[in-house]
Design goal:
The chain has helices at about 10-20, 55-65, 75-95, 125-140, 205-210, 240-245, 270-285, 300-305, 305-315, 370-385, 420-430, 440-445, 455-480; strands spanning about 5, 25-30, 45, 100, 105, 105, 115-120, 145, 150-155, 160-165, 175, 180-185, 215, 220-230, 250, 290-295, 325-330, 335, 350, 355, 415, 435, 450, 485-490, 500-505, 510-515. It is an alpha/beta fold. The longest helix has 22 residues, at about 455-480. The termini are far apart. Bound molecules: succinic acid (SIN). Succinic acid (SIN) binds near residues 43, 240, 241 and 242.
Length: about 525
């Protein structure tokens, strides 16, 4: 086949549809069903500068500020300039975003300087996008969808990715070969006990890439969403930042609106700042949660029907009750290092969406930029392959990277250890959560330095999560500063000497400083 796409969220399906529209033969492999990706859970929406008073320059500035100095400026420019066209394309494909008086309704979320987030069904944006993309994919006869098919490892021959080893829907080992392979397998929220991510978010693509010696970057930057409903259900019900955009505020246990003293944007500060402010109070005051006060939102049931249903399910009425909230693992800002066309360090292997590190998120993703990331970078892969590109170039995150620099000995692991998912999640939550230090991270690094025997989907998922956990812990230990979503209690300052990325593959992370910006 011409193109094999692993993953069926916004990034994977966008890649598949663009390739199929060119007449290519495309396979989409998903371990669940076509529409069961993390995309479906997205509430807030898609950020894009769709017209005045907004501009691509403003969107770019907000993205760079949120990213805490680690965004790739070229990648961000690509994101904000190509974004509006891709959103319109998605609408032409059938996605219906909320309108008022014939105009798109725009919401504001943390870190945005003005409303620019389109949404659907109030707070069911991901579900509508997934529906539209799945319908479009089903209508294209040259897309072969393989559901309940688990990708195990990449097949690499003569220095090139030529497909995957997989377990088919009956659990039988099989090979799927393709001229080019796209990893769009999403993130790794299941590394943590408390996450907004569905059970499928087990870092499969990043784990496969690491085992094949493909470079990853920025994996220490796991973003925690500040306002997950503190309730035992998993994934944790998300209380979208759009609530704060519509007037909700955070309060501590004494009713104080504490974000007023934390940041000029108060409750709409970038997400890392809000999550850290909450986490500090929870630790210092030994509290299970703080409170989101959404009582000022009069039209709650119609504006936020998904959140309304989650609250009602646990006996809360957001119009009168304060909602208990605590941070939850939400989005991995790093991932498989790619150039501006989604090419990884392994020829024939491409990546987009949350699995990838395209450089647009830096140390902390701006709210609602992730759906846009998938929409923009997936078609760039297809266009690059169509133009004959076959290997990465030194652009985007791969700017200034000499592939030899990543050629380091593998991190030592104990063979044949034993670890279950819940144990791993507890270790990561205790040691590599919102607040970290050398002791907690060293404990994690020691605990995850094992290889588990894998024989079925569940154990392959734990193996993938362990692979990602090792890379995350190693980079988090090496980054002896606090920046964006990476808060080191023992190194509270952001330091200029860490203005660069940690790249990992088999061995210890390698630091590459950001290139100096050429003055305009
Ligand atoms: C939210 O709705 O708060 C989440 C949006 C995002 O993660 O981009």
């Amino acid at each position: 086949m011409d193109l094999l796409v692993l993953g069926s969220g916004i990034a994977g399906l966008s890649a598949a549809i663009h390739a199929a529209q060119r007449g290519w033969t495309v396979g989409v492999v998903t371990k669940g069903e076509l529409a069961t990706s993390a995309t479906r859970y997205a509430q807030g929406g898609v950020a894009a500068a769709l017209g005045a008073p907004d501009s691509t320059e403003l969107h770019e500035t907000d993205t760079l500020i949120a990213g805490a100095g680690l965004c790739d400026t070229d990648a961000v420019r690509v994101l904000v300039t190509e974004g509006p066209r891709r959103v319109r394309e998605l609408m032409a494909l059938g996605a219906k975003f909320d309108e008022r008086d014939g105009e798109l309704q725009l919401a504001i979320e943390g870190g945005h300087s003005l409303p620019r987030v389109v949404h659907a069904g109030g707070d069911a944006t991901g579900a509508e996008i997934e529906r539209a993309l799945a319908d479009a994919a089903h209508a294209l006869p040259n897309i072969d969808v393989r559901e309940r098919c688990f990708s195990v490892d990449l097949i690499v021959e003569a220095g090139r990715c030529v497909g995957i080893h997989a377990l088919d829907s009956t659990g039988r080992a099989t090979e799927i070969r393709a001229r080019n392979t796209v990893l769009a397998t999403g993130g790794a929220g299941q590394l943590f006990s408390v996450t907004t991510n569905p059970a499928v978010s087990t870092g499969d693509g990043i784990g496969m890439a690491l085992r094949a010696g493909v470079a990853v970057a920025d994996v220490e930057f796991m973003q925690f969403h500040p306002t997950a409903l503190d309730n035992p259900s998993m994934p944790r019900p998300l209380l979208s930042e759009a609530l704060r955009g519509d007037g909700a505020v955070l309060r501590d246990e004494q009713g104080v609106q504490f974000m007023l003293g934390e940041h000029p944007l108060a409750d709409l500060a970038p997400r890392d700042i809000v999550a850290r402010a909450i986490a500090r109070r929870l630790v210092e005051r030994r509290l299970p949660h703080l409170w989101l006060d959404a009582t000022a939102i009069a039209d709650f049931p119609t504006r936020f029907p998904t959140i309304w249903a989650s609250a009602q399910a646990v006996g809360l009425d957001p119009r009168t009750d304060l909602l208990p909230v605590a941070p939850a693992a939400h989005y991995l800002s790093g991932g498989i290092a790619t150039d501006l066309d989604g090419a990884s360090t392994l020829p024939g292997l491409w990546s987009c969406g949350e699995a990838a590190c395209s450089g647009v998120h830096g140390a902390n993703r701006l709210a609602s930029n992730s759906l846009l990331d998938g929409l923009v970078f997936a078609p760039r892969i297809i266009e690059a392959i169509a133009e004959g590109k076959d290997a990465p170039e030194p652009s985007g995150v791969l700017r200034g990277i000499d592939p030899g620099v990543l050629d380091v000995p593998e991190l030592p692991v104990q063979p044949e250890g034993a670890m279950g998912l819940a144990d791993l999640q507890q270790i990561m939550t205790a040691g590599a959560g919102v607040l970290r230090d050398v002791k907690s991270l060293e404990t994690v690094a020691r605990a995850v330095a094992i290889d588990v025997g894998a024989h079925d989907v569940g154990s392959f998922e734990v193996r993938n999560l362990l692979t990602v956990a090792r890379a995350l812990a190693a980079a988090a230990l090496a980054r002896e500063e606090s920046r964006g979503t990476h808060t080191r209690l023992d190194f509270p300052e952001t330091l200029p000497e860490f203005s660069g990325r940690f790249f990992g593959c088999a061995g210890p992370p390698v630091f590459v400083p950001l290139p100096a910006e050429v003055p305009a």
